[in-house]
Design goal:
Radius of gyration: 12 Å
Order of helices and strands: HHHH
Number of domains: 1
Structural class: mainly alpha
Largest sheet: none
Number of helices: 4
Helix content: 40-55%
Strand content: under 5%
């Protein structure tokens, strides 16, 4: 059975980190810890953020979803 997609590249960075705080590690891994201080963080969509940081959006979204699944499946 395939997992439901929780996060898409059209979602905003703020929407994702608010709903799934564990994804902040993925953002920091790819964009650096300073990304959370950027004025556009929270409003831009994931696709734009990845374009700005020359990051493979599909791989990035996959890792965000993995982090979100680990977070919601913690017991």
């Amino acid at each position: 059975m395939e997992k439901e997609v929780l996060i898409t590249k059209k979602m905003s960075t703020g929407e994702v980190t608010k709903k799934y705080p564990a994804t902040k590690e993925v953002f920091a891994k790819y964009f650096g810890k300073g990304c959370f201080d950027c004025p556009s963080f929270g409003t831009e969509d994931i696709n734009l953020a990845c374009m700005m940081h020359n990051t493979d959006v599909d791989k990035f979204v996959q890792e965000l979803n993995e982090a979100a699944y680990k977070e919601i499946n913690k017991t």
